[in-house]
Specification:
heterodimer, A: 259 residues, alpha/beta, Rossmann fold, 9-stranded mixed sheet, 11 strands, B: 680 residues, mainly alpha, Fumarate Reductase Cytochrome B subunit, Fumarate Reductase Iron-sulfur Protein, Chain B, domain 2, 3 domains, 4-stranded parallel sheet, 28 helices, 7 strands, 51% helix, 5% strand, elongated
């Protein structure tokens, strides 16, 4: 069984972000990068499945040199090999362009399962998974919080709105987008780091793919990136404790809509 | 067989039967045959610590024979008991050897002749001491005096013959038998100095001369048989510790106690032929320890002192340093003897990960151990196995370790904001990169840079530097976590990465010394980095402030802080031996003078609970270590709890909030006391 996991590298959530002068992206100098959170859970789910069922885990990421680090981390945690998609022509992509590139690569891999995080923590589109599944002509399930594999079929628990869940069964091959919290991502041991050095990271550029250049031209362009202005409003509730309590509940339910 | 000789005073000497020599030879042979057990530890790995011939004999004599560390104020009754037992035992061993030689007419020029009064009296004292010691020990074991942690016949693989109390009864029999045999001899041989053997002499009236003559052979043979049997079986009994302790003390370099052995992971990673599956990373099996660590475990006498002083144990966390040693030893003997059920060293039937993670590396156990066992490196070696080999740090700590690599601080705050504390306070702090050379490189540390409570300590230090006119600078954003917590959590790879980066940064600059307010940074910069080639003169701020005061560069005694008590940080006190400097600084900073002492202070100080990486994860106990300690501080009635460590400050401050004492008790770093005195 082959499980392919797509991982995106992005600025670490602890980083102090600065908007670039052209207001089209953040200034990446001196930034610390790490793997997208839900992608880490996707990788762990793949590794757990491999440990239980046997098979191979292939990790794939697209981006500049620095992206090699998330692939190395994944290999150190137990992935078997990695594919690094890297080409100057792919600097600015939208979800569809990215999905077409991924599809061109993964078609050859013949994966039984493809895992991605449910969305990236930078742009938060959540589109790559479903688009890629369509391009590869396979079913997909989003927002997966539990998986159970048996006899070429997979049963997954999918998170719905309002605290609801549903169970979905699908025939392999299938693509799943994984929700954070589905498992506990492991820590890379030194033994794993040493084993990683003997594993393959295959570099793939635009020239290596059977994909016309117009396929990844972005159909969507970013106009301006900015930090929204913070607003804060303090409301003092007055009256007896009962009145204040009632007013607070009313505010939380009807104005702040926390429930 | 010796001829019977008439003595001048009319009695006759008793011959030593020839059969005795045959038995004695067999006993000694069997003793040495049994003694091979001492060599079990050779299955361990070679010792990476350099062997120190110079300290072999002094340490064997001082800590082994003279038992310097057995004597302890805290364990007064047990110390006295052991004093009587051990010295009584040694005196009688010495006396028996002398008598043996004298009877053979050997070395007579050097030895007291037979029936020398003072020698006879000395031997009586030896017998009395043994008897008294054994009686005290039996009382302690079988009354309410018995400490909860003291094991009774839970052998953990050590020599188990006769158990803990059985061996004491054997010593009682040996002493009583000795007195009776001597009494019989006094009656039969009738030496002029008989009354010098005062105990035996007092017993002579119990029987008639004929009666003594009748029982003499029985007394003599039973006493001889018991003594020879004890010699033969000594390595199988608890008394084996007496020999192992002497050997272990001689083989211990006391300067290296509690220091972790370097792993040189950078070299492992650089080696293209390294087989990741074959590398020994930490200790997951008993033969992954060095032979010295295994000898430590063998030497453990199960006195329980380590566990009694352990703060984790006191707070109900699942740690007993003694059990760690017992488990290691059981595994060792199981492997050497081919017994045991093959259960893993770390696992449900051995040492649990929770036990290992509960250790704060406070060093109380090591300092309390009478036989120089080095607990902390053994515990950290097992943590290294869990982290480096198995990839299993404590769940809460994994993120912190990853953040430490990414952002250079265990909180994971942005590395760009490492000097934000200065900007927020409107301070212009000199940076090393702008300076040719300085007198003092001030190491701010992650807590000093990011933790709001400790930022105040950093600002206090800056105010002090300015007031005293110190030529100083900081590294600013070039500074990264020293890796103390990572190292103590067993993450030697992360530690080494940080250490090599910091060493490279420090080596770019010229400075006379490093000063830091964090005892953990003090330990890593001052001692750990030397293992990787980074050698610097490092001063903890307690000593540095004391020096400034000595030089008259700071005003003194100005601050009204009420009564002050001082909490000794483990890495400043026990690990570095600095107890006086912080107290001196306090005494000269506040109007109330010399600080009040808590029930456990100085060498006996009780940890705050955050050391050894425990700042970054939590092992659940029945109580919290920092609350236990804060309550001790409250008992002094002090208005201010002073300390000199970033983590202690956080833990004491947290305890103060939990106890609802924010209005009544202040928690301060000593630098804050000095700086506040400047302002006033």
């Amino acid at each position: 069984m082959r499980i392919c996991v797509l991982i995106k590298q992005l600025p670490d959530t602890g980083s102090a972000l600065k908007i670039r002068a052209d207001e089209l992206w953040v200034d990446e100098d001196n930034l610390v990068f790490s793997a997208n959170e839900s992608d880490s859970y996707a990788l762990e789910e793949a590794l757990l499945m491999k440990e239980a069922q046997g098979g191979e885990v292939v990790v794939v990421s697209l981006g500049p040199e620095r992206v090699g680090q998330v692939l190395k981390d994944a290999l150190a945690k137990g992935a078997d090999r990695a594919i690094h998609l890297h080409d100057p022509a792919w600097e600015v992509l939208d979800s569809l362009g990215l999905a077409r590139i991924m599809a061109a690569v993964l078609k050859e891999e013949q994966c039984d399962l493809i895992f991605t995080g449910l969305q990236s923590d930078d742009t938060g589109d959540g589109q790559l998974g479903p688009m890629l599944a369509e391009l590869l002509d396979m079913p997909h399930v989003t927002l997966v919080v539990e998986t159970e594999l048996s006899d070429g079929r997979i049963k997954v628990k999918q998170e719905l709105e309002g605290g609801w869940f549903q169970y979905v069964t699908a025939q392999l091959p299938v693509l799943l987008t994984i929700q954070s919290g589905i498992n506990k991502p492991r820590y890379a041991s030194l033994r794993g780091i040493m084993a990683m050095k003997h594993k393959e990271i295959k570099a793939v550029g635009a020239g290596d793919l059977d994909l016309p250049a117009d396929q990844w031209v972005a159909g969507r362009t970013l106009q301006r990136l900015y930090v929204p202005e913070k607003t804060k409003e303090t409301v003092f509730l007055e009256g007896s404790p009962q009145e204040v309590g009632a007013a607070l509940v009313d505010h939380l339910v009807n104005t702040a809509k926390v429930f | 067989m010796l001829a019977e000789l008439a003595t001048p005073d009319g009695g006759h000497t008793l011959p030593i039967p020839g059969l005795f020599y045959a038995f004695a030879f067999l006993a000694i042979f069997y003793f040495f045959y049994n003694f091979r057990r001492a060599l079990a530890s050779r299955i361990g790995r070679p010792e990476s610590r350099p062997f120190r011939w110079r300290s072999l004999l002094p340490n064997a004599l001082y800590y082994g024979v003279a038992q310097r560390k057995v004597t302890s104020r805290r364990f007064g009754y047990a110390s006295l008991t052991h004093l009587f037992l051990a010295w009584g035992f040694m005196e009688l061993f010495f006396a028996t050897s002398v008598v043996f030689l004298v009877e053979r007419d050997l070395l007579t020029a050097w030895l007291p002749v037979k029936d020398t009064p003072w020698f006879a009296a000395l031997n009586e004292l030896g017998g009395l001491a043994l008897l008294l010691g054994a009686a005290m020990a039996l009382v302690r074991r079988h009354t309410s005096l018995r400490p909860d942690v003291l094991p009774q016949n839970s052998f953990g693989g050590r020599g188990s013959l006769l158990g803990d109390s059985g061996i004491l009864w054997v010593l009682v029999l040996l002493a009583v038998g000795g007195f009776l045999t001597e009494a019989a001899r006094l009656v039969i041989e009738a030496p002029a100095s008989a009354s010098a053997s005062f105990v035996a002499y007092a017993l002579t009236g119990a029987l008639t001369a004929a009666g003594w003559s009748a029982v003499q052979p029985w007394l003599w043979w039973s006493h001889a048989a018991l003594a020879l049997t004890l010699i033969a079986l000594l390595p199988q009994t608890k008394l084996f510790h007496s020999l192992l302790a002497i050997a272990n003390a001689g083989l211990t370099d006391t300067r290296e106690l509690a220091q972790l052995r370097p792993m040189h992971i950078a070299e492992m990673l650089a080696d293209p032929d390294a087989d990741p599956d074959a590398l020994v990373l930490g200790a997951g099996k008993v033969d992954d320890f060095t032979w010295k660590q295994l000898l430590d475990a063998q030497t453990c006498t199960e006195c329980g002192r380590c566990t009694e002083v352990c703060p984790a144990h006191a707070a109900g966390l699942p740690l007993s340093p003694m059990k760690i040693m017992q488990d290691m030893r059981r595994q060792l003997y199981d492997q050497v003897d081919g017994t045991g059920d093959g259960a893993a060293l770390i696992g449900p039937h051995g040492i649990s990960p929770e036990e290992l993670w509960a250790c704060t590396t406070c060093r109380a156990c090591t300092d309390a151990c009478p036989v120089l066992i080095d607990h902390i490196p053994a515990i950290i070696d097992m943590r290294r196995f869990l982290v480096l080999s198995e990839g299993k740090p404590p769940e809460d700590a994994a993120g912190s370790l990853e953040k430490t690599v990414q952002q250079g601080n265990p909180w994971g705050f942005p590395k760009e904001e490492r000097t934000q504390w200065a900007a927020d306070a409107g301070l212009e702090v000199p940076l090393m990169k702008d300076r040719e050379s300085v007198e003092v490189l001030y190491w701010v540390g992650c807590a000093g840079a990011y933790d709001p409570r400790n930022q105040s300590v950093t600002r206090a230090m800056i105010a002090i530097f300015e007031a005293a006119g110190v030529d100083y600078a900081i590294l600013g954003r070039e500074e990264r976590c020293t890796g103390d917590a990572a190292r103590r959590m067993g993450e030697e790879n992360v530690y080494e990465t940080l250490a090599h980066e910091n060493i490279a940064t420090l080596d770019k600059y010229r400075f006379e010394r490093i000063v830091t307010a964090c005892p953990h940074c003090f330990q890593t910069l001052g001692r750990d980095y030397a293992q990787l080639g980074g050698r610097y003169e490092v001063l903890h701020h307690a000593e540095f402030l004391q020096q400034l005061m000595d030089a008259g560069r700071l005003p003194q005694g100005a601050l009204e802080a009420g009564q002050v008590t001082f909490h000794d940080p483990c890495y400043l006190g026990r690990h570095s031996g600095q107890y006086d400097a912080p107290r001196d600084v306090i005494a000269r900073s506040v109007t109330s003078g010399t600080p009040l002492e808590m029930a456990q202070a100085r060498e006996e100080s009780f940890c705050c609970g955050a050391g050894g990486g425990n700042m970054w994860y939590e092992v659940k106990g029945t109580e919290r270590i920092n609350l236990l300690r804060f309550d001790q501080a409250l008992e002094t009635g002090a208005d201010t709890v002073a300390t000199a460590c970033s983590f202690c400050l956080i833990m004491m401050d947290d305890a103060r909030k939990v106890r609802g004492m924010e209005e009544t008790v202040a928690v301060k770093d000593i630098a804050e006391l000095v700086a506040e005195g400047l302002a006033g």
